[in-house]
Specification:
This protein is an alpha+beta fold. Helices cover 20% and strands 27% of the residues.
């Protein structure tokens, strides 16, 4: 009985500690809940066509710029509300 209680308490303690940790992708010193390395370039790819050419929708950073980008010049970036299939 004492062993089971100890395991439960340890699991809760570890769970709480893991929840409060920052996560880094490409960095060992994350400064926020999700951090990327302090370099410019592509940061997040939300969708790609699977080709090596890197045709994608995503987010990037350049000097003094936050970029939201589309796949082609004919594509749009849209802000609105609702679910994907009933978007306004």
């Amino acid at each position: 009985m004492k062993t089971s209680l100890l395991i439960v308490l340890l699991a809760l303690l570890l769970h709480k500690n893991l929840q409060s940790q920052n996560v880094g992708i490409g960095t060992t010193t994350p400064r926020g809940p999700l951090s990327f390395p302090p370099t410019t370039g592509q940061k997040i790819i939300l969708w790609d066509d699977g080709n090596v050419a890197g045709n994608n929708y995503g987010m990037g950073v350049q000097s003094g710029k936050l970029q939201l980008h589309t796949y082609t010049v004919a594509d749009d970036i849209v802000f609105g509300y609702g679910k994907s299939t009933a978007f306004n």
